[in-house]
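Standup notes
- DV: blocked on the single-chain target, sequence here:
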Amino acid sequence: QVQLVESGGGLVQPGGSLRLSCEFSGLTFSMYAMNWYRQAPGKVREWIAIITTTGITNYADSVKGRFTVSRDNDKNTMYLQMNSLKSEDTAVYYCYRNPFWGQGTQVTVSS
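- DV (later): unblocked, structure below
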């Protein structure tokens, strides 16, 4: 049974940082590219980052230069380091490996 479990969300002030984690089980984690998505209230879910099996990364323009995706294959975990957070980053953040989704973790950026 494939499971993706996100954690690390919370409330942070503008300009602050958070690190999200996505723990993956049920398949060989190192064999798959992994993605982060987010969904803000009233908006469609949007892709924000990918990391390939070899560690190549790519980002949506909205987060480029502020967010960093990484992975630890020994821990079957993907991370999203989020810096310089803005109010518009408020959303539920999901990890995704086709066709599986995690349950999401809420990130709220507010003073």
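- Follow-up: The chain is about 0% helix and 50% strand.
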